[in-house]
């Protein structure tokens, strides 16, 4: 393993097209926000190295296509994921309702102990919000998720984006200290990158 970091974690973002997955990744990894994107085709990823509690971790953050017709392409990328972030648009009720479908995909394809985070993006658009915290709490309860699994964020205004990834990394570090970290995952993720189909990015 590269001596510059102790842990390598695979994190994937999923959710409907247009909810802001790529914008969140770009905000976190490069601290930039772009308004003009075309929809992602297939899967792309970025790398982010961070230090938490004097331990350096590297995140391999995967950006998946949200359109229904691409779900079969991206399903293989659930395998080996340590953390999965489901993103919905706080101004788009249907994208919130579809969270249950993304949870179903996780339970079909991901490991049972994968960490799940749900993000409500575009919280800065206060006059256009269609999803309430009560709606979210009911959804979390119905899907056996804790309230702390949910974050309200804004890629545009950089609200809580960094906090989400840092908290997820902290959870993954603590978990791996308990179960033992396998260096084999390093090779597994490298092998996956060599097979990735790169494409245009979306927001």
TrEMBL record:
It holds the Pfam family Ras. Keywords: GTP-binding, Membrane, Nucleotide-binding. Its main location: membrane. SUPFAM superfamilies: P-loop containing nucleoside triphosphate hydrolases. It comes from the Eukaryota. GO terms for cellular component: endomembrane system. The keyword GTP-binding applies. GO terms for molecular function: GTP binding; GTPase activity. CDD domains: Rab (cd00154). PROSITE patterns: ARF (PS51417), RAB (PS51419), RAS (PS51421), RHO (PS51420). InterPro entries: P-loop_NTPase, Rab, Small_GTP-bd, Small_GTPase. It is found in: Endomembrane system. NCBIfam families: small_GTP. PANTHER family: RAS-RELATED PROTEIN RAB. This is Small Rab GTP-binding protein. It comes from Hamiltosporidium magnivora.
């Amino acid at each position: 393993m590269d001596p510059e970091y102790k842990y390598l974690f695979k994190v994937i973002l999923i959710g409907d097209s247009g909810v802001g997955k790529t914008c969140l990744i770009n905000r976190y990894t490069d601290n930039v926000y772009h308004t003009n994107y075309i929809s992602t085709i297939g899967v792309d990823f970025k790398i982010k190295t961070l230090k938490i509690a004097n331990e350096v971790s590297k995140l391999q953050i995967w950006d998946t296509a949200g359109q229904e017709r691409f779900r079969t392409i991206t399903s293989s990328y659930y395998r080996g994921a340590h953390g999965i972030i489901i993103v919905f648009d706080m101004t788009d009720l249907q994208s919130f309702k579809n969270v249950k479908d993304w949870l179903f995909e996780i339970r079909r394809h991901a490991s049972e102990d994968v960490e799940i985070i749900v993000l409500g993006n575009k919280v800065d658009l206060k006059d256009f919000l269609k999803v309430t915290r009560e709606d979210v709490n009911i959804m979390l309860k119905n899907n056996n998720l804790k309230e702390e699994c949910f974050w309200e964020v804004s890629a545009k205004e950089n609200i809580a984006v960094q906090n989400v990834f840092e908290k997820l990394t902290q959870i993954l570090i603590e978990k791996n200290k308990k179960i033992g970290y396998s260096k084999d995952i390093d090779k597994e993720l490298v092998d996956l990158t060599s097979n990735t189909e790169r494409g245009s990015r979306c927001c």
